[in-house]
Amino acid sequence: MSLPHAILTALLEKPSSGLELTRRFDKSIGFFWSATHQQIYRELGRLERAGHIRALPSAAPTRGGRKAYEVLPAGRAELAAWTAARDEPRPLRDALPVRLRAAAVVGTEGLAEELTRHLELHRRRLADYRAIAARDFPEGPDVPGDARTRLHHVVLDGGVRMETFWIEWLSEALEAVRLIEAGDQDSPADPGPV
Amino acid sequence: MSLPHAILTALLEKPSSGLELTRRFDKSIGFFWSATHQQIYRELGRLERAGHIRALPSAAPTRGGRKAYEVLPAGRAELAAWTAARDEPRPLRDALPVRLRAAAVVGTEGLAEELTRHLELHRRRLADYRAIAARDFPEGPDVPGDARTRLHHVVLDGGVRMETFWIEWLSEALEAVRLIEAGDQDSPADPGPV
DNA sequence: CATCGTTGTGCAACTAGTTGCACAACGCCT
DNA sequence: AGGCGTTGTGCAACTAGTTGCACAACGATG
């Protein structure tokens, strides 16, 4: 139940139309809470009906015309309540570990390639994050000033840490898979003298 | 689309009834692909209809009676195909970073408490993983023997790394929030002489 | 032996997220 | 002026995951 809140946050940072939101989701909030444009439009409709946001008066009311939204006090209150509320972490659901366990039963065929591919994806994403960090926080990690900047920095750093985690783990997994596949023709678990 | 495959993996490791699967999900595969008993029962039905698994003949056919399932060759083939297939990582969706950004706009009230709580959750989970590691891989991380053991070790180590990531990041976030809240009465971004 | 809690299986209804398509408006281009 | 690609908005239908409840079977217990 966080998409509406992610949208409220984005709109508070800057009032936007559906497409602008979609774009910004693709390169900032969406790193941590991804959403397609369909989800966003639907949610904008709901939020408007709920009185949490409203279309800026300047916006054209016709279909196909762009509409920009801004957050109303009720929306801000809702967001503040959500931020302070107790909320359990959502259950983890990631396919790769499952695939490794499946491979332990049905064989590692094709896995190394996939691991390599994912590794590359995460490397790329880490590079993106670092680029953003260099642009937005050129001072480096220390004393970034006001509260807002600090918090944004922490969030971005979360992204960096997360990708680093993936890269390390995928490397470990890849190494294990390669060892196993080398051992298949060679010797099962005894590679060399002592 | 991985729940059926997680179930196939679990069933290959050991034929089980719905409830047994649910239990095992709660303490092993489910760490990485969580599922409720409802999802599992529904999926067992689908897998049976698809000819990927079958109820063990010994099982009682009545409602309420326990039924154990085993994987058929078609199911194993399907699992092998999935393991080798190309599959994109699923989009990330985590509420905490979003909440931090929301807090950057509406204030950090209540956040420190939540961060502390989550930190504690992840610490506990890390301890669980370490306990499992101590039980299942008492030799330590090196040369764990056959392919199966190696892969299981890699998966578990993924859990350990993941929780470690959370703990580190949450600590950083918590520190930032506390600094900000201290600064609220104090000085905004200049704590001390020099 | 009745009823009561526990274990195990399952349906139904709901919420969230995805995919595919429709179509208006706008700016070009010729 | 007619057609053509791009931008922006949106509906509809589907898949995945969640929640709440129903109910059979089994064993304990007054």
From TrEMBL, chains A, B:
Species of provenance: Streptomyces durbertensis
Annotated InterPro entries: Tscrpt_reg_PadR_C, Tscrpt_reg_PadR_N, WH-like_DNA-bd_sf, WH_DNA-bd_sf
Domain Transcription regulator PadR N-terminal: 7-80
Domain of life the protein comes from: Bacteria
Name of the protein in its database record: PadR family transcriptional regulator
Transcription regulator PadR C-terminal domain sequence ranges: 92-177
Listed Pfam families: PadR, Vir_act_alpha_C
